[in-house]
Automatic annotation (TrEMBL):
Protein name: malate dehydrogenase
Subunit structure as annotated in this protein's UniProt entry: Homodimer.
Source organism phylogeny: Eukaryota, Fungi, Dikarya, Ascomycota, Saccharomycotina
Residue intervals of the Lactate/malate dehydrogenase C-terminal domain: 148-323
CDD domains: MDH_glyoxysomal_mitochondrial
Key words, A-Z: NAD, Oxidoreductase, Tricarboxylic acid cycle
One Pfam entry name: Ldh_1_N
Sequence ranges assigned to domain Lactate/malate dehydrogenase N-terminal in this UniProt record: 3-146
Nucleotide-binding as UniProt keyword: no
Enzyme class: oxidoreductase
Catalysis performed (reactions): (S)-malate + NAD(+) = oxaloacetate + NADH + H(+)
Matches recorded under NCBIfam families: MDH_euk_gproteo
UniProt-listed Gene3D superfamilies: Lactate dehydrogenase/glycoside hydrolase, family 4, C-terminal, NAD(P)-binding Rossmann-like Domain
């Protein structure tokens, strides 16, 4: 029996993500938590003739406790999205506290659950989640993930578009670093099958992957950021976790993890000086099995991009950690 919880389930991401989870044969019980609207979303989804039971919870009457108790996987797309002109870091002041409080609930009511953080700024909200779990003595680095799958999805789509290929899903592209602007580093030189895109075309493609989020924010004209593509990406990530839990092998996703706690992470930490980093991670029944240290194989051009990413990440990670360990 697999219980999945969506925190922020009434939102632009939360609703379509909850729909996809309701359609999944790997989910038996779906709990939808939000500060508004979740009972309505749950009732709506509950009429779909798939096996998962669905229930909505609000904060009143111990709603968070009831939603989280017994959870196997908790996905967190709660918090405010960007408007044009904002950076993801501009969301920190509001979203940091939201993620802290929800992960506090995880620590208390389902400390063994997988936690997939979507709320921005991911570069900082994942360190916040880690510190909250550490504070409660229940941190398992193999089970905490920052969801960077949308960067992977964009890299597949935009690369296929540049090459005039009709099926983006054939590409496997390591996208490393973090989840904001130039902390997102697609390693096109390590794509499989190999791709040959050079010069200005390569530079434009990399910029488009790094700043794909801005494209959506601008197109939505103040009405939020990516929701539908994110729901797809979030589902792809949770589905990969659940497949790995069910015993499927060879599942690898790019995701933002705590390096010292995952096999292979120490080498990346030594090379980057960072505690958190997104890279291809092999998933198994207990979560992250191994993080691939592919940075040494990057091209010289990509190594230049990585240096920029390391600086931005260091600042974002410190800000997240300090929010819990040294609050202002
Ligand atoms: P939204 O405003 O449409 O939905 C957010 C939901 O969170 C709302 O329903 C709101 O009521 C709920 N919420 C607020 N505080 C809460 C709390 N304390 N507990 C539970 N729920 C709470 O926003 P959205 O478009 O769905 O985006 C949500 C977040 O995801 C944003 O921070 C956005 O930047 C981020 N995001 C991340 C990625 C990524 O790749 N990781 C991609 C897209 C968006
Ligand atoms: C994205 O990459 O689409 C999300 O992080 C949302 C945003 O603010 O761009």
């Amino acid at each position: 029996m697999v219980k999945a919880v969506v925190c922020g389930a009434s939102g632009g991401i939360g609703q379509p993500l909850s729909l996809l989870l309701k359609l999944s044969p790997l989910v038996d019980d779906l709990a939808l938590y939000d500060v508004v609207g979740s009972p309505g979303v749950a009732t709506d989804l509950s009429h779909i003739s798939t096996k998962a039971t669905v229930k909505g919870y609000l904060p009143a009457d111990d709603g968070l406790k009831l939603a989280l108790t017994g959870a196997d996987v908790v996905v967190i797309p709660a918090g405010i999205p960007r408007k044009p002109g904002m950076t993801r870091d501009d969301l920190f002041n509001i979203n940091a506290g939201i993620v802290r409080d929800l992960v506090e609930g995880v620590a208390l009511y389902c400390p063994k659950a997988f936690v997939a953080v979507i709320s921005n700024p991911v570069n900082s909200t994942v360190p916040i989640a880690a510190e909250v779990l550490k504070k409660h003595g229940v941190f398992d680095p193999a089970k905490l993930f920052g969801v960077t799958t949308l960067d992977t999805v964009r890299s597949e789509t935009f690369t296929a578009s540049v090459l005039g290929k009709s099926d983006p899903a054939v590409f496997k592209i390591p996208v490393v670093g973090g989840h904001s602007g130039d902390t997102i580093v697609p390693l096109l030189s390590l794509a499989s099958p190999p791709v040959s895109i050079d010069g200005a075309k390569r530079d434009e493609l990399i910029k488009r992957i790094q700043f794909g989020g801005d494209e959506v924010v601008q197109a939505k004209e103040g009405k939020g950021s990516a929701t539908l593509s994110m729901a797809h990406a979030g589902f792809r990530f949770v589905d990969s976790i659940l497949k790995a839990v069910s015993g499927q092998t060879g599942i690898v996703e790019n995701t933002y993890v705590y390096l010292p706690g995952v096999a292979g992470g120490d080498a990346i930490k030594a090379a980057t000086g960072l505690d958190f980093f997104a890279a291809p991670v092999e998933l198994g029944p207990s979560g992250a099995v191994k993080v691939e240290n592919i940075l040494t194989k990057a091209s010289d051009y990509e190594k230049g991009l990585l240096q920029v990413a390391f600086k931005g990440l260091a600042t974002n990670i410190t800000k997240g950690v300090d929010f819990i360990v040294a609050p202002a």
